[in-house]
Design goal:
268 residues; Lipocalin; 2 domains; 8-stranded antiparallel β-barrel; 8-stranded antiparallel beta barrel; elongated
């Protein structure tokens, strides 16, 4: 007959606890890190498709609910109906989308093309990747959304011009030359690309109406002069509808012409 050794109750409990902690630290079942639920708010970071990677505008986001998704392609907003297969896949039926002309239109078109049909879900700590049948991916993280820059007291640098559905970046000779600031009382001042200007604007919700521009009188030729003439005509075509997504401002006239501008603190 074997010999039985008495182990004090307190020591037995401590030994059992130590074994549990050891199993957790070694990645046992009890130590598996809880992966995020796909339902929630995600910041889109990049797309991979056709052997290339497209980096997302900072405003690109995707919010999953039980049967619905909504988000932002980077400029335009969208909705979709979704059906989850547990946490391993989701089927997406696109819904409505806004139709604003945007500077990152290539990214927006690819995002819209990939975010439909059956997508498999790959979860990692604080990350989510959606994969299409052909292996293209939408990579996301849980970082918080970028707050919109304020319309007032932000220096806006014009980056592209809009004409209907076409968004054209400024030529290199004119890039970074046109910029403006709106004060809290909507007094506007800045550069049209060559000459400095000032004007008093009025606001009505998402619309701005600019009064006559007062400008300096330097002669301006080439791309800078063309940009100046275009902006002068645009400000005269008020009211302009404004929209801010992250640090990007869009101003659009009733005839579909407009501009996009990138914002930085006026104090910078």
């Amino acid at each position: 007959m074997g010999t039985h050794r008495h182990v004090p109750t307190g020591l037995a409990v401590a030994s059992a606890l130590a074994l549990v902690l050891t199993a957790c630290s070694q990645g046992g079942e009890g130590g598996t890190r809880v992966l995020p639920d796909p339902k929630g708010s995600w910041a889109v970071e990049s797309l991979t498709t056709g052997g290339r990677t497209l980096h997302a505008p900072e405003s690109a986001r995707l919010d999953f609910a039980e049967q619905e998704a909504k988000g932002n392609y980077g400029c335009n907003g969208f909705t979709a109906a979704v059906t989850f297969a547990g946490t391993s896949a989701v089927t997406v039926t696109p819904g409505a989308t806004t139709l604003t002309s945007c500077p990152n239109i290539e990214f927006e078109k690819e995002f819209a093309r990939l975010f439909k049909g059956r997508l498999t879900i790959d979860r990692g700590p604080d990350r989510l990747t959606l994969k299409t049948a052909d292996g293209s991916t939408i990579a996301m993280s849980t970082k918080p959304p970028v707050p919109n820059a304020p319309l007032h007291d932000t220096e806006w640098t014009v980056e592209s011009l809009i004409s209907g559905d076409t968004v054209t970046p400024l030529p290199a000779e004119a890039a970074g030359k046109a910029r403006f600031v709106l004060s809290a009382d909507l007094a506007a001042s800045g550069s049209l690309g060559c000459n400095r200007f000032s004007a008093q604007a009025t606001g009505d919700g998402a619309q701005l109406t600019f009064g006559p521009l007062t400008t300096t009188r330097m002669a301006c030729e080439g791309p800078v002069g063309e940009l100046e003439r275009t902006l002068t005509e645009l400000f005269a075509a008020s009211p302009l509808t404004w929209k801010i997504e992250g640090h990007d401002l869009t101003l659009t006239a009733p005839d579909g012409k407009g501009l996009t501008a990138r914002g930085a603190s006026a104090a910078e």
